[in-house]
């Protein structure tokens, strides 16, 4: 029986292709009320007056809430965000009031009738503006906020919400020994997750004290803890149900609508209330992905060995911190990219602006970070007149070295980047990035970029698995990871089936998550589910096998150690015909005489990552994750040098997967990530007007790749260097397809046009402007 | 003259069944389909602005974004939703080719592909692209969807 | 306050439509004529407009006509852009209409709805700006015909209670050399930076533009420059852009300067196609 390494069809497949799979807002209960927020139409303004009279007059309106009704602050790390704006609005689209009504249409109408007087305040519309000496302070009280989860270091009287330091190597820097020093700056915009399903939450507060929450969340257990914390409830009172999620990409790890829905329900005596984001709300009101302004100084010997790096990452986190301090630490821990650098000075700043606040985004800061690193590496290669792949190979991180935060690297935890680089050279037929002329005004050029990433999860993140057996010998698996798209539930079933040597179609996974019955899984983020859930499932399988053997040993009158488990049977190792079937012992073993022993087989597994720690405040020293995934991505572009239009002919990825558990599943997730990464590179950005208005808050203005705009050819290969402590050696893969695609595109475009393409997205207009624009 | 100024009982033909249902004149076809009376939630709201295609259904053989169509306009038309394509070629190929991940956009893509095959005797890459770029997918690389549509076309004899 | 209903009326004659519209207007219902409906629904959802009633004109036979009659082609305002492309009576109209929005949306967007749009683009109007066409207008007195050039001045010029019923043009226009180009920021499906429809009769190139300015336009001076056969394509394109009497817009799709750049190379290629015979 072989399940691992096979392209097992997904457990949710048939329901999804027949339209029968249920997402959060697919099941509605008659009588549910709707809450609709009224959004700020200023990026920064004082709220002078809110008149709700007209809204309350709309038939069917049950309540109208404003910031005065919600006088507390929330936050995942730093409590700096009011659920509804207090006194001032800090970003365009911030919820200012909340209308609860019998129907969504009535609530929307009433919300539009709320009359708000604002006094506009100066708008901080960029990182540079935020860091000017006399910049308006977005949070004058930043040093007085409560810290819910250390660490975060806000700087009083500035717009700096957090500052992370990495200091590695001699205090006397190695710059004098460098033959070549380059500087490079990259600027990346905020981007949107744009999951196809907008975020939504429904809350009902029962008279008995239970709070029922239905949410599109990736983090049901975080929702549970947040609601319990902010509304003084026992965690057990809060039951969060997360069905299949229609795409998440980090955007559904933030807790926002659940709090609004709770407040709305509380305002109407606990009745069931839904908050369903319109697409416009989902763009502007709910958190987006961070922007980045990065400055690099890299020094190297003339043979290419990188000696020193001085790096500043400034993040446009928008108006509130949410998970930005964690993202900043993730960037800090991987700040050099997958290259060995002995002398590192890196500062990561979370900068408040009057932009939509930000949260986790596929790659947790590593996509913009990788962009900045790989543009600097490319510039260094140019300065050294070296092949950029050779430069990457020479400096590639290897076992025996240490990470920027001095975590020790082994073959198990860091994988094999040199092997991936060599595989990429073959896969894409690397020609050194030479420009190839293929027609009048048409050229083709390659670009590559490497990445690495670890989980940057909290050191106390847990995961669990519970297996129950049905009478017929089939098994049910319950885990706390949400199915957002990558096939997490199927992977867990595969691991179980392999461990029990039973058919995977006899394994039934609970596809939804309910915090009341499913064991906790920290959050379905950081590509960690396979590792953490997998470890818990392995533990649960050990437990189940032990239980099965113990019972079978009685039935077969032998010692448990004489027995083996496979094919839904427990049998003697030396004589497999002496056996009992799972169905004979699933619910206890019944002797021929009728009396029965044992009972239902119920097994459990529990896991917590070991040996992680928080980064040191001054040096950043610490171990940020259990292992790294390294990889290389490349593109072949065809560029029209007259019109600056271009297309992606080939897109390639080579990733050290440790072990590929489900080949088709792995390839799909990586290809999808590549497409998303290319979409960011070629067209996506949140666009703010000069007054901070979120301009492109619809899918007709926030453009993403569509059919026909994907690469002509995807090339996906895996290297397999096992991560010894991971289930079957598998490394995380879920986010990684996006990580280096924008950098690869920028590297190719820069060579093609002789420009420094350092500011995505790269639409023809931006290339035209870089090539001289009007003046050319 | 058909005039509907309030609650109205209309006759709808959905997936081969005729149903009488009460609608209001401003109700969209999407809200009719997803409402309690029918509960065909395969049509998904993604933008309710005609931009994403997740709510696409087929009316009289042509794809329509159901968020942009009034329910009362859909009387006397044959409405096909993804639930009506159960066990047919297009969903089967989407399953085989792993042409979905989160699954939220999937029914829209399936219905556009289905309508394309109804209206096109011989498909080619350009036709597939033109019909399917009406929809947005955020998880896949689109290649899987493209392959699934080709496979369905070949299986139905609309291929080359 | 009650949630506003949007009452629905589906008349079967022009007179009935206009009478209904007038009555609704008089009763304070802020009615709108309804064809494909996509724009009314999107704007209503965002509370930009509050139509209390819509008058669906698609049940009127003249609005749904789509045929070649004798020497003329007639396109009802209620014909979908998809249907126009499928029937393909007029290749230039096909080429232009077939680039509006996306394929599924074109099943629903109608010729009349696109031309009457409040958005600046109205691309389906471009071919009509290049020919002598006749418009059928629904009025209280029934259908009236007017020269299309008198009816369209950047936008449809109609009385509040009038609506476009159909457009009629000689079959001859279908044989003119033509080309149509829609240029976008990046994506195939998007609003245009500039969309240009062009034809050539004997020695003169006629071009109409959308997306470049706040309204679709054409101009004799541009056509004259484009038609100066002894000048190279690129020079004519450059001069044509200089001759555009409208201010190029700057928005999230592109800057004014970039619009000019794109318009210029697109015009050069259009001239080449029209004069080089593909």
What are the main properties of this structure?
heterotrimer, A: 776 residues, alpha+beta, Aldehyde Oxidoreductase, domain 4, Aldehyde Oxidoreductase, domain 3, 8-stranded mixed sheet, 5-stranded mixed sheet, 24% helix, globular, B: 160 residues, Ubiquitin-like (UB roll), DNA polymerase, domain 1, 2 domains, 5 helices, 6 strands, elongated, metal-binding (chain B), 2 iron, 2 sulfur cluster binding (chain B)
Describe the fold and architecture.
The complex is a heterotrimer of chains A (776), B (160) and C (278). Chain A is α+β, with helices and mostly antiparallel strands. Chain A contains 18 helices and 30 strands. Chain A has an 8-stranded mixed sheet with strand order 3-5-1-12-9-10-11-21, with helices on both faces. In chain A, a hairpin with a 5-residue loop joins strand 18 and strand 19. Chain A is globular. Chain B is an alpha+beta fold. Chain B is built from 5 helices and 6 strands, in the order E-E-E-H-E-E-E-H-H-H-H. A 5-stranded mixed sheet of chain B has the order 3-2-6-4-5, with helices on one face. In chain B, a hairpin with a 2-residue loop joins strand 2 and strand 3. Chains in contact: A-B, A-C, B-C. Chains A and B meet through helix 1 and helix 16 of A and helix 2, helix 3, helix 4 and helix 5 of B. Chain A: This is Aldehyde oxidase. Chain A: InterPro entries: Ald_Oxase/Xan_DH_a/b, Ald_Oxase/Xan_DH_a/b_sf, Ald_Oxase/xanthine_DH-like, AldOxase/xan_DH_MoCoBD1, AldOxase/xan_DH_MoCoBD2, AldOxase/xan_DH_Mopterin-bd_sf. Chain A: Pfam families: Ald_Xan_dh_C, MoCoBD_1, MoCoBD_2.
